[in-house]
Amino acid sequence: MKLLSAVVPCYNEEENVADFYQEFIKNESFFQEKEVELELWYINDGSKDHTAREVKKLIEKDKRVHLLSFSRNFGKEAALYAGMEKANGDFVVFLDADLQDPPSLLPEMYGYLEQGYDSVATRRVTRKGEPPIRSLFARLFYRLMKKFSKTEIMDGARDYRLMTRQVVDAILSMPEYNRFSKGIFGWVGFETKWLEFENIERKKGETKWSFWKLFIYSLEGITAFSTAPLAFAAFMGVLFCVAAFVFIIFIIVRKLLFGDPTSGWPSLVCIISLISGVQLFCLGIVGQYLAKTYMEVKRRPIYLVKEEI
Ligand code: UDP
Ligand code: MG
């Protein structure tokens, strides 16, 4: 018998825990035929509601369900990492608790593993039901990443992914603190089959990602998988050096030809403020990388466990 572990990160998902279980377990007969056992890991990411209680109810009924509670909210990335560490399966799949990642897709995904793929990933092709401004920025983000990062990051990619043990171990071998899964998946490589599906709106509860949280997360993604902004800072430096050099020659020539001593104050102020702005901006970019390095160097644990059942 093989084992398939499902990892479900949960942050304030008390309404969804039981519904998810019902939906997931519908695949039971399919996997029985394939001689694959199932296990289910709910990673309770410091929920402030009764998520843990709901999971415990399930555990009483079904021994294949497990619970791992964090000591506080560490974020979805930490929950996915913890899930991979705990999962015993020959295959591991990540699913959202809100049923936006339809468990009914699992048999098809498993089929591709049987065909020899190492991992089966999903992406949504529509963003129906999402605020337009959010979609716009998401598109922009993926376009930027495509340009600046050598790692392949698919537009609309979800974290819904079925992987073999080999891929899971590869991802676990990257114990970095600033985790950006969408990039990590691409970075480890292996043969990946992409499945597409239409966006499904959240069943119950509400999204945990505000626009601001997503914005910060996208910066995380850019700094974690690209050093292009640093090169950009250097490029701006060179550009302004050249401009300044041309300007110096211009001033000298003008002085020699016309002997104009005092004019030019407004332009001077403009130039100084422009260049100091660019300088601060570039310093900020460098600071971002320094901050990431600082956090990384501390080697803090990615998550802390409060309870494991
Ligand atoms: N989640 C989590 N920790 C967090 C935020 C979210 O474990 O800090 C979980 C959440 O419970 C859900 C999944 O991550 O199962 C996706 O979150 P959500 O549905 O809010 O994001 P969206 O689908 O709106 O992008
Ligand atoms: Mg969701």
Please write out the topology.
Blueprint: E1 2-10, H1 17-25, H2 28-33, E2 36-44, H3 51-61, E3 65-70, H4 76-86, E4 91-94, H5 106-114, E5 119-124, H6 132-148, E6 157-164, H7 165-172, H8 181-188, E7 192-197, H9 211-225, H10 228-258, H11 265-298, E8 305-308
Parallel strand pairs: 1-2, 1-4, 2-3, 5-7
Antiparallel strand pairs: 3-8, 4-6, 5-6
Radius of gyration: 25 Å
Percent of residues in helices comes to 40-55%
Portion in beta strands? 15-25%
Topology, number of strands: 8
The stretches of 5 or more residues where confidence is low (pLDDT under 50) are: none
Broad shape: elongated
Ligand inventory: uridine-5'-diphosphate, magnesium ion
The biggest beta sheet is recorded as:
8 strands, mixed
Helix/strand-derived class?
alpha/beta
What is the string of SSEs from the N terminus onward? Answer: EHHEHEHEHEHEHHEHHHE
| Lateral arrangement of strands in the main beta sheet | 7-5-6-4-1-2-3-8
Number of helices: 11
User: On the 0-100 scale, what is the average pLDDT?
Assistant: 88
What is the first-to-last residue Cα distance?
23 Å
Question: What's the short story on this structure?
Answer:
The chain is of the alpha/beta class and 309 residues long. 51% of the residues lie in helices and 17% in strands. Strands 7-5-6-4-1-2-3-8 form an eight-stranded mixed sheet, with helices on both faces.
Question: Could you characterize what this model shows?
Answer:
By secondary structure, this protein is an alpha/beta fold. The chain has 11 helices and 8 strands. An 8-stranded mixed β-sheet has the order 7-5-6-4-1-2-3-8, sandwiched between helices. α6 runs parallel beside α9 and α10 packs antiparallel against α11. The longest helix is centred in the last third of the chain and has 34 residues. It is elongated and about 90 Å long. The relative contact order is 0.14.
